[in-house]
Amino acid sequence: MTQFRPSRFQTLPTVVKNLIIVNVLVLIAQHFVANKFFNFEDTFALHSWQSEFFKPWQLVTHMFMHSTESIGHIFSNMLALYFFGSVLENVWGAKRFFIFYIVCGLGAALCHLTALYFENQAMLSALQNAVDAESLQHFVNKYGSRIQVSGSYTANDISAILINGATLGASGAVFGCLAAFGYLFPNTDIYLYFFIPLKAKWFVLLYAGFEIAMTVRNSAGDNVAHIAHLGGALVGFILVYYWNRSNRKHFY
């Protein structure tokens, strides 16, 4: 049985190393440069197709950005990229892993944008029906915590906030790495919190179940793009399944 211990030092492959470096440098740029010359998030974070700020390159650039409000966002993503991405790059090589990573990020973004489009349309429709102060307040009571508005906003203000929200982070691509690792190494032990063993296949399934549950729950104030996580994992699974449909020598 193969064991995978996150606490064990492993060689840092080229693509994984460079991805981590780029993500850290972008975070530094976000913190020290943003809004002095231009708005980083408006330009490079992912926006809804309905937003005036949407640009095609955001499908790629958003996955190299992270929240400047919490170091945990980039730390958790880069730690997972190191643990799982390093193994995948060592198995596949740099070129195939880089293609895999980018395609998973793109797939996650497209899944997120599709879900966001229908969610925004439903809320915009409800907002259009809020023709007076009472119905507008009812809308805010129902959706306000999800889009972080209060009753002091007008309908036009709420509409702009609703469709101009930004999404950023490497989670979609990283979830693709997680799904691929679980598929290629299903019986490998992952040590949760460095000492609780759990086979990779169960870890991936449990994590996917959690993301599905959070998507269905759609809690007020939850600003995590769960659909993007699931989309990245799905694209990662499809890719690794296609690449290994006639080659099972990498299963452990």
Verbal overview:
This protein has helices spanning 14-32, 40-44, 58-61, 71-92, 94-128, 133-147, 155-163, 171-184, 200-217, 226-243; strands at residues 3-4, 46-47, 166-167, 189-192, 196-199. Helix 4 packs across helix 5 and helix 9 (200-217) runs antiparallel to helix 10. By secondary structure, it is mostly helical. The longest helix has 35 residues, at 94-128. The chain is globular. 63% of the residues lie in helices and 6% in strands. It has a single domain, classed as Rhomboid-like fold, CATH 1.20.1540.10. A three-stranded mixed β-sheet has the order 1-4-5. Strands 2-3 form a two-stranded antiparallel sheet. The protein starts with a strand and ends in a 9-residue tail after the last helix.
